[in-house]
Design a protein that fits this description.
Elements: H1 17-21, H2 27-54, H3 70-81, H4 85-94
Helix pairs in contact: 2-3, 2-4
């Protein structure tokens, strides 16, 4: 999924409790599902960032030399400006883009 095009809030937002719990009728279950999705998003973003930063990596034995690569800095700043994984997960939840099921139901 492309998290760069999300419309999730970058700042703190207060959500309507009834809207959050509407799909499950249980706020705790809804928050648990959102938290699991946020963990998935966070691991995806982290893997993507590490892969991109590895493209710029220079391996040398000297600890004294530190190179600042402008492209590397720009990539890092871009990922810092993205909404937090929890905000993306809440936005997906409210737009009913998260599939969930309970093992109790068939």
């Amino acid at each position: 999924m492309n998290y760069k095009e999300t419309k999730a809030a970058v700042t703190t937002v207060t959500y309507n409790r009834e809207a959050v719990e509407a799909q499950t009728d249980n706020i705790y279950e809804a928050i648990s599902i959102i938290a699991k999705r946020a963990d998935q998003i966070n691991s995806d973003l982290k893997k993507e960032l590490v892969d991109k930063l590895d493209e710029f990596a220079t391996y040398n034995d000297s600890l004294e030399e530190v190179f600042e690569n402008k492209e590397q800095i720009e990539v890092s700043k871009f990922y810092e400006r993205l909404p937090k994984p929890t905000a993306i997960a809440v936005e997906e939840w409210l737009n009913e883009k998260i599939y969930h099921r309970s093992p109790d139901t068939k």
